[in-house]
Amino acid sequence: MITGATAGIGKETAIALAKMGAEIIFTSRNQQKGELVKNEIIAISNNTKVDFILCDLSSLNSIKEFCVTFKKKYNRLHVLINNAGTSGFKRRLSKDGIEMTFAVNHLAPFLMTNLLLDVIKNSVPARIITVSAYLHKFGTIDYNDLEHKESYSIIKSYSQSKLANILFTKQLALELKDQDVTVNCLLPERAVTNIVQDGGIVFNLLVRFLKSLNLKRLSAARAALTPVYLATSKNVENITSECFKKNKIVQTSEESYDRDNAKRLWEVSREYVKEYLSIQVFK
After folding, report:
1. I need a labelling partner for 90 at 20 to 30 A (CA). Which of 29, 71, 97, 230 fits?
2. How far is it, in rounded angstroms, from Cα 32 to Cα 181?
3. Where are the domains of the chain?
4. What is the pLDDT of residues 47-74, one digit of tens each?
5. More confident residue, 16 or 197
6. What stretches of the chain show up as alpha helix (H) in DSSP?
């Protein structure tokens, strides 16, 4: 299962895994786009085992509804790839009134992963993979202003969320110790994606120009190599709590190894999503 697979790295990851024969489920917040991407992946991979489920990752309730629908349709999940991400030059709010970058990049995978853990544990051996970014090195978790109400910048919000991805990985690996579920994250190669939602005219023209050179697909396909590796390689079947780049373990920022910080972020995140953390499924 892959979030954010309607474009960019997520889409290329889905295509690559579908070509390998995997059954693919991905999220889409738009029915029409989901259908188009589903049909495209099927056509490219010649694999009909491709499905999507509607989900708006900026809405905690939508994430919960997604997980209910997923559990009604599937009783196994061997690989979860938390790929979706967003960023913005201006401070925006999610459907729940939470700063958008923090909500989509961190709270969304935190909630979705926790809601799907029972299915994942019933599918062992299983793998959980989260896409972070190099910019985590510039991030810090500001517990006094997690949503950057006092001072917002695109770098500050995005780098914090990507550091949160790594801390989430570290703490989840501890929570799942000795349960045959590996938890790792990755720093993808730089790729031209649709992650910035309010780039303005100049920024959007630049992205359009790069697309016209066909760099977007090539770059995203290259960046997808590491998530595909983490999802499939026997070389990492017993490795957990690590961060990878170009299929190799890499060192991340000093703050990303702070266990107290990881535990505190976990507890704060649970507080944010606590009313959505339990679901009942009637098949």
Report:
1. 29
2. 34
3. 8-276
4. 999 999 999 999 999 999 999 999 999 9
5. 16
6. 8-19, 31-45, 60-73, 100-102, 108-121, 154-175, 200-212, 215-223, 225-232, 259-273
CB atoms within 10 A of CB 196: 16
Residue 189's alpha-carbon distances to 101, 221, 222, 223, 246, in angstroms, are: 20, 10, 7, 5, 8
152 is catalytic: yes
Q: Please report the pLDDT score of residue 42 as a whole number.
A: 98
Q: Which two tokens stand for residue 104?
A: 């989509």
Distance separating alpha carbons of residues 45 and 64, to the nearest angstrom: 30
Which residue among 74, 134, 143, 152 is the active-site one?
A: 152
User: Are 137 and 252 in contact, with CB atoms under 8 Å apart?
Assistant: yes
With contact defined as beta carbons under 8 Å apart, do 113 and 185 qualify? no
For the record, the structure tokens of 11 come out as: 């889409």
Q: Give the C-alpha separation, 121 to 127, whole Å.
A: 10
The residue among 46, 5, 7 whose CA lies nearest residue 26 is 5
Residue listed under structure tokens 């709270």? 107
278: tokens are 């339990």
* pLDDT of 270: 98
DSSP code per residue over 204-232: HHHHHHHHHTTHHHHHHHHHTHHHHHHHH
H or E element that contains 50 = strand 50-54
Pick the CATH number of 8-276 from 3.60.15.10, 3.20.20.10, 3.20.20.140, 3.40.50.720: 3.40.50.720
The reported pLDDT for the residue numbered 221 is: 87
DSSP 8-state symbol, 103: I
- Tell me, what's the pLDDT at 204? 52
